[in-house]
Amino acid sequence: xxxxxxxxxxxxxxxxxxxxxxxxxxxxxxxxxxxxxxxxxxxxxxxxxxxxxxxxxxxxxxxxxxxxxxxxxxxxxxxxxxxxxxxxxxxxxxxxxxxxxxxxxxxxxxxxxxxxxxxxxxxxxxxxxxxxxxxxxxxxxxxxxxxxxxxxxxxxxxxxxxxxxxxxxxxxxxxxxxxxxxxxxxxxxxxxxxxxxxxxxxxxxxxxxxxxxxxxxxxxxxx
Length: 223
What we know:
Blueprint: E1 14-17, E2 20-23, H1 24-28, E3 32-38, H2 44-55, H3 57-62, E4 65-71, H4 75-88, E5 101-103, H5 108-112, E6 116-121, E7 127-129, E8 131-136, E9 142-148, H6 156-171, E10 174-175, E11 186-188, H7 194-200, E12 206-207, E13 218-220
Parallel strand pairs: 3-4, 4-5
Antiparallel strand pairs: 1-2, 3-8, 6-7, 8-9, 10-11, 11-13, 12-13
């Protein structure tokens, strides 16, 4: 994202939302956070995404993650659209939407955070927001960013998997391999000497033999 790199402190912006005005760092408190943008209210792909995010909101809460969405429409539009989303999910009328939506009708945050998609425009020729995802740690630093075009919906189960990895590797000196899921083996970091690895991981370290003879593929049960 332009001007925003992994490890940077995420901007402490103020915004109007469906739960009132917020200051972002205060909203997060000591939690992890996920901020994800949508091109527009009352659009098909966005509705399916927001519906899936709402269904998974309890899973994010279990991980101490606060969710917040952003779209370039008004609070009033967001409140009306969220009723459609809940109906799409098969929820009864009057059910509370589980997380707030930011009203970025002037596109100020979209510009600040590099969210605009130059190839997707509204009926007035204005660029729409792309499908951005930002994961922010309790230290208010950016831990992950993903950018999808407006035409491609996101996978929120994958986002949960990524958060599981981020939270594990923030606490333990391990890395997660391709397609890793919680409970799978993890990898010992290359910069940890063998004797230290043996002490750090009493469950054992397995090294895969390779033609190069280099011992860099080291696995251990998830700590």
